[in-house]
Design a protein that fits this description.
- By secondary structure, this protein is an alpha+beta fold.
- The chain folds into two domains: about 250 residues, FAD/NAD(P)-binding domain; about 150 residues, no CATH class.
- A hairpin with a 2-residue loop joins strand 8 and strand 9.
- The two termini are about 15 Å apart.
């Protein structure tokens, strides 16, 4: 019996799901079954908040289907763990699940997947209606304070009182620091220090910030002093550099950048397909064909005009300088700007709705096929509360669907023959 005002529930098994995000909802849906009452606890007054705002309000549901061996390369943390999990619920399964419920999905040119409706509300409605149909009971503004082990099951201390449950699925999302894990510390699981992943690079001292709004479709960004680099679109903002290339690099470099206190040098190659020698050869060829053209006025290599003028200024090339009369010293400076432009990073900025944390429950203490705790029978984990995270592009939601599915399904199947 629940003692905080709910009616007595006549079920053999009560499964508590902690967290009303993507992983929590998917876990609650798949934990539901005959003789099972699923109760979803959400500490805030809102459900599926991240789903609603992701992808600019369109919800980047997943990524285009790919082999598991390729899929796991998009996870800076959790690669080996997810390799086993994806065998049970893959991108193909995500497509099938949503489309079988009337939600048509589309693949965009960069591989990201969105609902054809172009609104995240389609995904939110689908999840909420499925949970309602299965009888999932939702408790909003009701956070968890404690977990106590009983002879059979667990007692949850909530903001509204205590409840005894048979099983628990923890899908409470990421936490900003170890001190905010609260009740999870009571489980004695090893917690990996949470640090930010997916963030933009602040470059407050760099003149490039004056070119806010300039973007390039295919660059390479490297972290000096490491082997870390990433290729993709880049956007110059009023605080520094952003875009998929930077965000993905921040995810793979999260630990190193944290250790450096977010002070580092990024090196930008502005056209990912061109080597240093290719820049030299093509500049030479252009200068021979058009010796009397002004360098400032004729941007090359797909470089936007504003950025090209900036490179010329950085290379000490004046506005009247002709290609055919360009001194070798200035010529070399221009090539260096194009091929290995340095920017000093001094801090980070969370990237809007793509906020993700690295860290959480150690994967060594969780079974990847079931998401069950190795320390506590009947406790499962799903989503970002685990020490796993993906790059931008739908990979974090895919991890949420997969781990939520496995946690919910495992709790339900074990309930059928244990309780």
């Amino acid at each position: 019996m629940l003692i905080f005002g709910l009616e007595q529930i006549l079920f053999y098994v009560i499964i508590a799901v902690i967290g009303g995000g993507a992983a929590g909802f998917f876990a609650a849906i798949h934990a539901s079954g005959p003789g099972i009452q699923v109760i979803l606890f959400e500490k805030s007054p809102k459900l599926l908040s991240k789903v609603k705002i992701s992808g600019g309000g369109r919800c980047n549901v997943t990524h285009r289907p790919m082999e598991i061996s390729k899929l796991i390369r998009n996870y800076p943390r959790g690669e080996k763990f997810l390799k086993k999990a994806f065998l049970h619920f893959s991108i193909h399964d995500t497509f099938s699940w949503f489309e079988s419920r009337g939600v048509l999905l589309k693949i965009e040119g960069d591989g990201r997947v969105f609902p054809e409706s172009n609104t995240s509300q389609t995904i939110v409605t689908c999840l909420e209606e499925e949970a309602k149909k299965l009888g999932v009971q939702i408790q909003l503004s009701n956070g968890i304070k404690s977990i106590k082990t009983k002879l059979q099951g667990y007692t949850l201390g909530t903001d509204r009182g205590e409840i005894t449950v048979s099983k628990i699925i923890v899908a409470s999302g990421g936490h900003p620091n170890l001190g905010t894990y609260g009740y999870l510390n009571q489980l004695n699981h090893k917690l990996i220090n949470p640090i930010p992943s997916l963030f933009t690079f602040n470059t407050p001292q760099e003149p490039i910030r004056e070119l806010m709004g300039v973007s390039l479709p295919d660059v390479v960004v490297k972290l000096e002093g490491t082997k870390l680099s990433y290729r993709g679109p880049l956007l110059i903002t009023h605080w520094g550099i952003s875009g998929p290339a930077v965000l993905k690099l921040s995810a793979f470099g999260a630990n190193w950048l944290y250790e450096q206190q977010y002070k580092a040098r990024a090196i930008i190659q502005w056209n990912a397909d061109l080597t240093e020698q290719a820049y030299v050869e093509q500049l030479n060829s252009y200068a021979q064909l058009h010796p009397n053209r002004k360098v400032h006025s004729h941007p090359l290599f797909g470089i936007p005009a504003r950025l090209w003028e900036h490179f010329c200024s950085q290379s000490e090339i004046n506005t009247e300088q002709l290609f055919g009369q360009l001194p070798k010293r200035l010529y070399n400076k221009l090539v260096q700007c194009l091929f290995c432009y340095p920017v000093a990073m001094q801090g980070k900025t969370t990237f809007k709705e793509e906020f993700v944390t690295a860290g959480g429950i150690s994967l060594d203490e969780v079974y990847p096929e079931t998401m069950e705790s190795k320390l506590h029978s009947g406790i499962y984990f799903a989503g970002e509360v685990l020490n796993l995270d993906g790059i931008t592009g739908g990979f974090n939601f895919q991890a949420a669907w997969t781990t939520g599915y496995l946690a919910g399904r495992s709790a339900r199947l074990r309930s059928n023959f244990i309780e």
